[in-house]
DNA sequence: TAGAGCACTTAATGTAGATTAAGAAAGAAG
DNA sequence: CTTCTTTCTTAATCTACATTAAGTGCTCTA
């Protein structure tokens, strides 16, 4: 319930009144697995915080190939940053992989909160900074590591995801086809 | 001189006093081409804003292969975000490609300014948000586009860089070897 | 309990891009 | 101007990974 407050408190300290104010600006929703809560072509209106369950964001190329941009489980934020910032139609789908409880923070409320509680501007700055570092590293990994090394890093970084996520989506996340991933995996197991 | 203030004013409005305060916290330096202003293994102490000239950040793999993470010309920020945030030794080199005038903002001063001028927290939040969107797009491009398509996007996005930057570094930026880049380029010219 | 659909595997074949190696061209430095 | 170094090109060969295709085994639904 106050999961998101706990998450925020790891970075900035809100007063009880500020916490109440914050809670008044968010909305909690429950989604079944396989629900698509945002589609490519739509404008992203909200930031999503995952209380429980599992989501992913991805694009679809030429109506065929999916590419997973990110997973989000308990305690993570997800959204279509490009669309959210520009308020233009985005390229991302956001889909529920496991039944989820999600906190929605609308763009307007978020902007309003920046004024009402400047500490939240700090909070989101830091969240975004950390996210930027992670994407920079992932990009460099894609430029410099082999598929096997990227898989290895993935396993170490997200050990819990490996059981939960269909393996073809892990393949997509690290940037290989499901067929090659399968071959690579069995090759690794033989060692 | 007040180039950086102009840059800031595109996003937030500072009062004259705030501008003076800001100026008192920064330092301007001149570097010759080929200067390495940050090396892998060092802790990054500053954010760099480019007044003039051209810089790049890159890693080196196994003491051999370079991978360009970013270029920064007039009006751009550059740094080793990972190292700057964590204050741990980083993996990036930052090198001057063309004689440059660079504004240095130390981490301490930056943090201090967040408290003194909260609007600057907004400024940097927005800068980092935009940067995140760009890296997310670049990652997805690397997962889904061919080298030729990535080169095409690069040309459209950074037309001025093509003349300035040695072509092997463009190759590295888009994620191919210089040899393949050369072949690809002559193939494109023949059309 | 059948059968429709996914997720995963295996294997043959194809290819984008890497590697290696050499030479040409163009700067920089003395 | 000459030499040294670095960048760029070309070409042969190689390989990591993609593509295509077929088959296996889930699990969900009816």
Automatic annotation (TrEMBL), chains A, B:
Coiled-coil ranges per UniProt: none
Cyclic nucleotide-binding domain: residues covered: 10-113
A Pfam family the protein falls into: cNMP_binding
The protein's name in its UniProt record: Crp/Fnr family transcriptional regulator
Organism, scientific name: Flavobacterium buctense
């Amino acid at each position: 319930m106050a999961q998101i407050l706990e998450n925020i408190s790891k970075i900035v300290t809100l007063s009880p009144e500020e916490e109440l104010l914050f809670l008044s600006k968010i909305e909690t929703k429950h989604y079944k697995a396989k629900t698509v809560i945002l589609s490519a072509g739509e404008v992203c209106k909200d930031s999503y915080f995952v209380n429980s369950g599992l989501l992913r964001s991805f694009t679809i190329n030429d109506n065929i190939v999916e590419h997973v941009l990110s997973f989000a489980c308990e305690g993570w934020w997800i959204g279509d940053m490009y669309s959210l910032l520009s308020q233009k139609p985005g390229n991302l789908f956001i889909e529920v992989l496991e039944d989820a409880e999600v906190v929605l923070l609308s763009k307007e409320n978020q902007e309003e909160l920046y004024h009402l509680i400047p500490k939240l501007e700090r909070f989101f700055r830091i969240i975004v900074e950390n996210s930027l570092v992670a994407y920079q590293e992932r990009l460099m990994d894609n430029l410099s590591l082999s598929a096997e090394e990227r898989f290895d890093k993935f396993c170490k970084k997200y050990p819990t995801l490996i059981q939960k996520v269909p393996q073809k989506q892990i393949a997509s996340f690290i940037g290989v086809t499901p067929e090659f991933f399968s071959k690579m995996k069995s090759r690794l197991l033989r060692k």
